[in-house]
Every structure is written in structure tokens, then in C-alpha cells.
Amino acid sequence: MRRRFVIEAVMVATYGHLLVPSRPVDYVIPYTSIAELYDMRDSTEPVMDDPDDDLHVKSKINELIQFFEDSLNRKKIEKALQVPWRESAPLLLNETIQFTIVNAVDNAQYGEMFDPVETELLLSSLKLNVPLLSDQFEFQDKLIEAEVPVQVYDIEDFEFAVEEGITPVDMEL
Description:
By secondary structure, the protein is of the alpha/beta class. The protein has helices at 9-14, 31-42, 51-69, 71-80, 116-128, 137-145, 158-164, 168-172; strands at 3-6, 25-30, 91-92, 97-102, 132-134, 152-154. The longest helix is centred in the middle third of the chain and has 19 residues, at 51-69.
């Protein structure tokens, strides 16, 4: 059984341990988060403070962009973009990781407290009933303060989050 998480695309490129989970994972990514990858790749602003880390992360961002631009993956994404809240067919990275792209639609419900990407992340989590993975403490604090009914895991607790959703029956599969 795959454990699903809503996440920003850049986090997958930034945190290498997300690409080697102990169990199969499905990363649900709002489409606008993929669009941000292009901005980060093409920007002169560093993604990471350390120049070597920045170069590595930008390389991983480029690899992820190439993965999403693969003709089969691009077709799956384009089909999902035709209807609000449609999920793409799974984009398989390997036997343990797949991506699902969602055509999330921002609304004014949380727009005052959260930026557009944060809003799409939390709305995707709510609508799909999937926990969020985040490395942004301020975002996590705002979710708690606004009493948004989503389950959120800090990126450092990723392995715990993967294991927590597994039941004894799942372990036998």
C-alpha cells in the first residue's frame, strides 16, 4: 500500500531522503508547484545557502523538470489540467515512488493567511484527505493557528510519517 503525501515539488528535489522511502510513496503535487521549479532553475537567486548544495539542488530540480517533461508524463499532466481538481494518472519514478499531479484551484477561503502555493497545498490536503509534508515552520504554525483541519508532518519526520500510515495488515502485503 502506498502512503500519500501532499508536497511541493521543490522539496522532492531538495531533500534526498524523500527519494529513498522505506515503503512505497505517492507524492501529490499541485501543478503550480511544478511551475515554480522553472523559476527556481532559471533564477540567479540561490536555492540553498551553500554554493555546492545550491548547485546540487539546482541539478536535481532540472532532473525533476526533465522527468515531468517526458512525453508520457507531460500527456498525463496535461489531461489533469483540463478539469479543476482532477488528478493525473500516476507518474512512476521507480517501484517505490510515484507522483500524482493535481490541478488544484486556489480559493479565497484561506487566501488572507496563506500565499497561493500554501493555499493550494492545504486545499489539496483537505480535498484529497492526504497529509501534508512541509519544511516550513511558519507554514505549519499558520496551519495550527488557523485551525485548518489537515494532518501535517515536518519533513524531518518523513520516515515516521511513512510508517505511521501502515497497518499490520499492510505490512503483510
